[in-house]
Specification:
Radius of gyration: 13 Å
Shape: globular
Largest sheet: 6 strands, parallel
CATH class: Alpha Beta
Strand order of the largest sheet: 2-1-3-6-7-8
Number of strands: 8
Structural class: alpha/beta
Strand content: 15-25%
Number of domains: 1
């Protein structure tokens, strides 16, 4: 696993509060962060991925206006830059756990995040160990 200063996380999300919570947890670990915000009424723009350096992990919301995490996952999987990058379903909709697993997500973290175990979960994910956590 790369040292924490070299780790790059990408957040794809529509809710600013969720972005802020996740960013705060990642910043405490000195992780570089990129964010793609899906604005209300807009679909995901696959071209936005070209402006992002290859991340070590992607946190992807499942429910966003104009799109959903399953469609975005398809874009990520078709982009060679994201080959082998663990994509984590990050959502309040914990009923989607099985669907996310079937769709090919690496891991699942339900909102609200368990801050006490976040570093442990992230370490596992970065080491290729799936985490399926529901609060």
């Amino acid at each position: 696993m790369p040292s924490s200063k070299q780790i790059h996380a990408l957040i794809i999300e529509d809710d600013q509060t969720s972005i802020n919570v996740l960013k705060s947890l990642l910043q405490q670990l000195a992780i570089q962060i990129s964010v793609i915000t899906i604005d209300f009424g807009h679909d995901f723009d696959p071209g936005s991925l070209a402006m992002i350096d290859r991340p070590d992990v992607v946190f992807l919301d499942l429910e966003m206006p104009g799109t959903n995490g399953y469609r975005v996952l398809e874009h990520l999987r078709s982009d060679p830059q994201f080959e082998g990058v663990p994509v984590v379903a990050y959502t309040t909709h914990t009923s989607h756990l099985n669907r996310a697993r079937e769709a090919g997500f690496h891991s699942f973290l339900g909102k609200p995040l368990d801050a006490a175990h976040f570093k442990e979960h992230l370490d596992a994910i970065l080491n290729g160990i799936p985490v399926w956590e529901v609060p």
